[in-house]
Amino acid sequence: MYNEDTKKRKRYAIIGISSLLLVAMVIGATVGVGATLSKDSESDGSGEKPGITASVKAIKTVCQPTDYKETCESTLTAAAGNTTDPKELIKAAFKVTEKKISEGLQQSSVLQELEKDPRASKALATCKELMNSAIDDLKKSFNHLGSFDFSKAEEMLEDMKIWLSSTITDQETCLDGFQNTTSSAGEKMKAVLKTARELTSNGLAMVSEISSVLGDLNIQIPTKRRLLNDDASVLGHGGVPLWFNNAEQRKLLQVAANNPKPDFVVAKDGSSKYNTINSVLKDLPKNSKKTIVVYIKEGIYEEQVVINKTLTNLMMVGAGAEKTKITGKLNWKDGTPTYKTATVG
């Protein structure tokens, strides 16, 4: 009987959280906010502090777990109107963050046109690329929040945390590029991105709080994540990675490296249409839904390979660690921003 009652209570809790999404976070934070508001109310002896509306209380609650509460509260007060829906408030926070990062993108373009220092100019070009990436990751998080499916809660929350962390990294990498530059461009970009960096950090704190509260309620979140399969050989290197949960992809990883069935072949010796990796990248389908396999034959490929975000579901397989080699020569000392020095990126 006890077990049945417990199961029923959990089912009711799941239904409630599924429909409201962030209500659990609000309940968890309301105690602290309520205590603060009560103390404020007592200060004027009226029993209720003038000017504290339902929307203000909701904003304070949503901003409670963040590191930059003042930035959170001021931006949401200006952007969110009178809504008290925590989901809408967090969506508003994401939109404001996107706007602030876009301002950084625009500023990097303006500054680059005026820049005389070659290293600073390259750093600004890197910032433009990184800000576009940050905006894309922020949009993914926003869309995930809008289409939240409780049956995939763990996966969706983890995805959002990854994307928001990536957005923070993009902004920090942008600023890192100005080391040893002679102009004031770095300080200007730092000032422009100040609010954006704080808001992105706040967004990550909000999403992390949702995960924490769901865990505190002891509710079993449905998950489809797979554990490593120690029995599966991946090109001779052991288990299948967690992120390869697609049957087709897992099968491809278990194919022997010397017997691939590629969609494209790159051959340094000229036996294929493509003799460089960059040449084949131009012909690969964009935003592919199926896995595209590129086999790179034995040889030393002296080139800088950049795989952009449109080349989705791409798998590159070489002839072996000692047979297929990719090597580049770009480095920071010669004036290339660190972000651009990777041989394959």
Describe the structure.
It comes from Dillenia turbinata. This protein folds into two domains: 14-216, Butyryl-CoA Dehydrogenase, subunit A, domain 3 (Up-down Bundle), CATH 1.20.140; 256-340, no CATH class. The N and C termini lie far apart (58 Å). It is mainly α. It has helices at 2-20, 23-43, 54-63, 69-79, 86-114, 118-146, 153-176, 185-216, 247-253, 277-281; strands at residues 264-266, 292-296, 299-302, 314-318, 324-327. Helix 10 (277-281) links the parallel strand 1 (264-266) and strand 2 (292-296). Helix content is 54%, strand content 6%. The protein has ten helices and five strands, in the order H-H-H-H-H-H-H-H-H-E-H-E-E-E-E.
Helix and strand arrangement:
Layout: H1 2-20, H2 23-43, H3 54-63, H4 69-79, H5 86-114, H6 118-146, H7 153-176, H8 185-216, H9 247-253, E1 264-266, H10 277-281, E2 292-296, E3 299-302, E4 314-318, E5 324-327
Helix pairs in contact: 2-3, 3-4, 4-5, 5-6, 5-8, 6-7, 7-8
Organism: Dillenia turbinata
Pfam families: Pectinesterase, PMEI
Family: In the C-terminal section; belongs to the pectinesterase family.
